[in-house]
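Archive transcription. Copying these from loose printouts into the bound notebook so they stop getting lost. Printout 1 of 2:
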Amino acid sequence: MLKKILQEPLLHFLIVGGLLFFYLSTNDDLTKPEIIISEGKIKQLTAQFTKTRQRSPTEDEIKALIDNQVREDLAFNHGTQMGLVENDTIIKRRVQQKIEFMLNDSIAGIEPSNEELQTYLDAHKEKYTISPVYSFKHVYINPEKHKDINGFITSLKAQELDVGYVNLGDSIMLDNVYENISTAQIARLYGLKFAKSLDDIDVGTWQGPVKSGYGLHLVKIDKKSPGRIGTLAELSSEIKRDFRIDTQKKAINNFYETLESQYTVIIGSEAK
């Protein structure tokens, strides 16, 4: 009977609890670790409650929120001491995300100077190239509607295209004339091959036929603005956004490099 009692888990729990109580009661002079629930944390808990419940918490509910936070911190600290956090992937990832969020948040509030943005623009010119811009007219030709396609094109070229281009050729559910349209926009409408072909067409004369995804076109370019690098004044918001993203990435990489220098990292077969 005595042997059976000694094997009971409840007895073991009571013995451990008694020893823990005795240890704590005889070590009151030791400095205890602190659990701090700041006013800012209380405001955060209250705000989360209000957002979830769509109303402010009562005094009893605030007390319950605080009590729950104390228990959460106590459990986390004790779990850390017991080694429960050490191999928990979810907790590790959450801590990593929180640290990186704090780093990103601190950088997001930094306002870069125009000099810094210009330096960034100069170092990444390829990202901020403004496409060529065209103003042009065209006459659409549907090859499937004409047995003698070459003869039809020749007859079109013989006419006053500047005057009649709107009514000549075949119908298409697109405009006949475009003003200040970029190659990117042209490519979305007519295909990349058509857009690139405009680079080889001289300004001021009807030329073609030029192939598109729809068929053929006689084209007259009235104005062509070549591609160029955008200025800081034109692309300020975009450059500032990219500058901050890159700065955040560099800060995180520098943080981990500094942190790693304080450890000996053992990987794979080197680990024992």
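Printout 2 of 2:
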Amino acid sequence: MARRPNQQQATRVRAKSDPQGSTKLGFVTGVFVGLISATGAFLLWPKVSAPEPYLEEVSQLGEETSQRMNETIDWSFYDLFPKAEVATVGGYQQPMVMTADSTVIYYLQVGSFPTTSDADLRRAELLLLGLSPSVEKKQIDQTTWHRIMLGPFESQVELNRAQALLAANEFESMPLTRRTPSSKSIAGTETTGDRDG
């Protein structure tokens, strides 16, 4: 009997190769071998630690450093503040004797100019800052001086705020205090800290 080539091919079972199956198997095998190798190396590897004298030296150095830092910090400034004397801008003024029937009103003089145009220019600059200046005229040695004044301020705190605003905008100012008598007193207004010009 003669075999037919078609029948022979039909009866054979061909084994198909799976290229993805071998890749997956290789990956899983690699991970498994890697884990076993890492575990073995961890268990069998000799443990290395720093020598004892080195550890002692490092701990001593840390203690010395912290002691030096504590010694170099000067905490005495807490004691200095209550004892310190702070110079103020108004330090050149004569101390004013307060009486029971007078009140103090604070002013700032921001400039004094011999011409009206210079005084108006300074007044305009102060108006742009949101302040309300006034111009006072005073005759000194046949010259009329135009003083730019801010105030009245009812407290030293308000005066200091205005003076800080002026200083921040590079304006020099001179604080003035005026003692006004109460309604019981007949005397006129006295001014301290007032300078000519």
